[in-house]
Write a structure and sequence with these properties.
Length: 170
């Protein structure tokens, strides 16, 4: 089942976190020990809504970076970044990030960010199932958001899932 995105936040979710437009990692690093783990163990699954966003039917034409972000060893954010593979300069920048936040690219370059769309994370979503299979407890999520960035005329799609422990650090 694909994620059901809405323009408004679901009731009961933490609006401050989900609507924060600046770098969340830059805000958290002031209060906690931040650690970013690239999830190379995850199968690089590009979802149909991501292919549709980039107007392609081929998963192989898209680059995917998945990370789990921890604050004081507690998982607070799962983030997936998708963009076209043929963007050599952007691919190189993202690969060099290693365990650094995407904010190091997005908020330091001239970028334009779209409005957010939001979702709760149903256990039936493909992404929820994928995370649960990797022992990431999706039932601890407070919500998800998606936005895209325009960086040097190219689109970057960012999907973030926020976990309950993030409220300790915001």
């Amino acid at each position: 089942m694909k994620i059901n995105w809405k323009n408004k936040i679901y009731k009961g979710n933490s609006q401050d976190v989900l609507t924060y437009k600046s770098s969340i990692t830059n805000k958290i690093v002031k209060k906690a020990n931040l650690k970013i783990e690239r999830n190379e163990a995850f199968p690089n699954t590009i979802f149909n809504d991501e292919k549709l966003f980039f107007k392609t039917s081929r998963s192989g034409s898209l680059f995917l970076r998945e990370v789990l972000i921890f604050a004081n060893d507690r998982p607070i954010i799962y983030a997936r970044t998708v963009f076209k593979k043929n963007l050599r300069q952007l691919t190189s920048l993202v690969k060099k990030l290693n365990e650094n936040p995407l904010a190091n690219i997005v908020f330091k370059k001239k970028t334009t960010r779209s409005e957010f769309i939001f979702s709760h994370m149903s256990p039936n979503y493909k992404l929820s199932k994928k995370l649960n299979s990797q022992h990431v407890a999706i039932e601890n999520s407070i919500g998800a958001r998606q936005s895209n960035f325009l960086c040097k005329g190219e689109k970057i799609l960012l999907t973030e899932i926020f976990f309950k422990d993030i409220n300790r650090f915001i």
